[in-house]
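Checklist before submission:
- one chain only
- standard amino acids only
- sequence pasted in full

Submission:
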Amino acid sequence: MRVRVLPLALASLLFANCAAENHTATNSAAGDTVDVSFAAELTDVSVLGEFTHEDLKESSSAVASRLSPGVFWTHNDAGNDERLFAFDSTGQDLGRVRITGAKNRDWEAMASGPCAEGACLYIGDVGDNLAAQKFVTVYRVKEPAAPGRGKPTDVPAAAALRFRYPDGAHDVESMWVDADTSIWLATKRRLRDASGRNRQSLVFRVPASAWMAADVVTAELADSLPMVPTNREATMVTDAAISNPFGDGDGSALLAVRTYGALYIFESSRTGRPGKVRARCSLASLREPQGEAVAWLPDGRVLLGSEKLGAKLHAARCEP
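Returned file contents:
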């Protein structure tokens, strides 16, 4: 969720200026330096449809179902109730599920991943616009079947993991889960180092062992991403999705991380750690009102979604 929306032309201009000011950035784990003054264009772009559920006005993430190919899940953010919305790739309403035993303080992220029950949805109550929360929560829910339009159902939260960041509160909207159920999170907003320079988006990891903890645990600073959020909204990090969260086959995976203005594709693995940057693409051509969702499609494209009722759902490739 963001507080204000810039006109598209201005957002695109600011994004370009930001890229010029921050010419290179480094992914610490991969040792990879990326020229962020250049972004490729999306290819194989198509408009798939738009959300049709009248109550889905602030879609803040998107997750592909593990159980039902062609089904996706999303949710509203702060100020809304504890419901998940099922939809197909055209945005058609496939029903809603209320999560009992959970609270939507600010649901801003969601991921699919393994769990003892087989396949689970991980709901990130991790939004924190003012960086004021003492801790945040991720709920784990056994993935339900899409109930069908007009057939709402209830599902209990199977587990809740509370954690804090080692350096203080952060606003986060991007989360993914790896094959051992560790949680990865990337910071959204501008951060500065001791000298006042803008920092890269930080990546935190909450290990799988934390799910056994009864108290609030501390995430570990694990990495950084080659994107530098500033006060220009086009640079803010708004969602992430890993293509193989269950570690199928040889475990290889791609990690998609988006901002309001660009999409990054990283190499990854069953560990979930972001590796070498494979591609970076501008999203300006989509004219999204408030792009905060990315998910993988079976054909290797990504699904891109936005807040606002009636916002278009796009499919596209981001390649070198």
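Reviewer check: Confidence is low (pLDDT under 50) at residues 3-36.
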